Amino acid sequence: RSAIGNTSKPGRYEVLSENPYLIIDAAHNASGVEAFGKTFDNTDSRYLSGKGKLTLITGFMKDKECDRMVDIITEYFGNYDPIIIATEPESERALGAEELKDKLSLNGLKVYALPNTEKAYEMAKNLGHKVTLCMGSIYLIGDIKYYFEKKGW
After folding, report:
1. Structure confidence by residue, pLDDT tens digits, 21-39
2. Are 63 and 93 in contact (CB under 8 A)?
3. d(Cα 87, Cα 18) in Å, to the nearest integer?
4. What is the largest CA-CA distance in the chain?
5. Which of 9, 11, 24 is nearest to 55 (CA)?
6. pTM
7. What are residue 21's DSSP bridge partners?
């Protein structure tokens, strides 16, 4: 019981900072995005009172269920009136930031496209929202964790 209680899964709903919140998750497919949304709803959504204080950095591979993931993002996070930063994981398979922005914008979300993940991290940090979530490709999550360790939050 002790071992299980102390087990962690890096990159799976990993809280890197609590003040302000920075949470990363390798939600790189539809079921992962849905699990991330449910977990946020059941745990850390309490830190948001109303709208406009949530940033979401996201990026996926183009061979994933991107349209379904966009719908799930809208379902779970749209009510918070988030600022979304669409970016591109470091891979030839990455969905372009502009294409992801277009998909998310069709659902009425406010989205910025920054292909460079380091610039996406900096933008989110400078927004200074109470909660920043980063989810998507494992490559993206690894980069965000690297920038966190290098630059702080």
Report:
1. 999 999 999 999 999 999 9
2. yes
3. 23
4. 47
5. 24
6. 0.91
7. 18, 131
